[in-house]
Amino acid sequence: RPHILSGMQPTSDSLHLGNYLGAQVNWVTLQENYTPYFCVVDLHALTVNPDPAQLRERTYATAAQYLAGGIDPERSAVFVQSHVREHAELAWVLNCITGFGEAGRMTQFKDKAGKRGQENTSVGLFTYPVLMAADILLYDAQAVPVGEDQRQHLELTRNLAQRFNSRFGETFVVPEPYIPEGTAKVMSLQDPTKKMSKSDEDPKASVSMLDEPKVNLKKIKSAVTDLDNNVAFDPENKPGIANLLRIHSALSGESIDVLVERFAGENKYGALKGEVADVVTSVQGPFRERYLTYMDDRAELDRVLAQGAERAREVASATLARAYDAVGLVPAA
Ligand code: ATP
Ligand code: MG
């Protein structure tokens, strides 16, 4: 079975609907035919200097949300990135074949660094995509199920793998992106030209997977749309409505055409929002309940994560040994 790898950062208490629809839904489907490795990428979260107690809690919370979303720890290796040392070690090797200008062209870095200002931007944030390349290449992953925002990072991963292979001999599998169609980019409820993001400071911008249903109802009701009050699928001119239609369609399975027909006519924004809130709640409510159950049993979570890390290390250590040998590092006697 071919391998897949993906992960999420423990940068907030709750995943949002974008993480769920853009990535996690595909993780669950892919576990049928692939050998999956799903990690909580805590080393990545360090790039934005999180509070230590909060990072610890959010690492468990993220793992519990993997399980709540339908990841089966018997079929998938569910683990914490820092439990497998090979991630940091391979990242160093890859840092040494990454161009400074190449890393500087990453738009996520430019966005995040722009917001934080130079004084608050760490070197870690700069080399974040190289660590991500290490995450993927360690597992010989053929596919990487992520949202659209990760496409450029994946392209860098492919370039690094090809560069390494041609310079030092075949070592890494060159991975393909696996990006869903409709919901590859779930947009902010408050600014539908920006993606929904864990690090968005405005809580009204994101549908949290762990919110109480009534909180989400309120957020969806107050989602920013447009003044035209005529439901149509027009991502260019009506990004807020397009976002709501995509969310509805992804969760309910109804096509966008069918939805547009149902809400055709004037003054249907309220009705559309009401239905979106219903379909969101019907998925997110039970998700939240399962999450709470998993969080109640830390010993069981620790057991799952230990088992996942053990499986991950089996593959990761072999790949790292191959890479170390290829570049000429002498093995420890
Ligand atoms: P942060 O703001 O801290 O970077 P994030 O919301 O971008 O958080 P990540 O942990 O960086 O979340 O990403 C986890 C996964 O979720 C990735 O596969 C990413 O592509 C996907 N993802 C993130 N935001 C969205 C979104 N708005 N729509 C679809 N997929 C998304
Ligand atoms: Mg992100």
Automatic annotation (TrEMBL):
Annotated positions binding L-tryptophan: D135
Keyword Phosphoprotein: no
SUPFAM superfamilies membership: Nucleotidylyl transferase
Domain of life assignment: Bacteria
Motif interval(s): 'KMSKS' region: 195-199
Chain residues that bind ATP: Q9, P10, T11, G18, N19, G147, E148, D149, V186, K195, M196, S197, K198, S199
Enzyme Commission code: 6.1.1.2
Keyword vocabulary terms for this entry: Aminoacyl-tRNA synthetase, ATP-binding, Cytoplasm, Ligase, Nucleotide-binding, Protein biosynthesis
Coiled coil: none
Entry annotated with the keyword Protein biosynthesis: yes
One of the record's GO molecular function terms: ligase activity
Alphabetical list of CDD domains matching this protein: TrpRS_core (cd00806)
Catalyses which reaction(s): tRNA(Trp) + L-tryptophan + ATP = L-tryptophyl-tRNA(Trp) + AMP + diphosphate + H(+)
Compartments where located: Cytoplasm
NCBIfam families, per database record: trpS
Family of the protein in this entry: Belongs to the class-I aminoacyl-tRNA synthetase family.
Quaternary state and interactors: Homodimer.
Role summary: Catalyzes the attachment of tryptophan to tRNA(Trp).
Protein name (Swiss-Prot/TrEMBL): Tryptophan--tRNA ligase
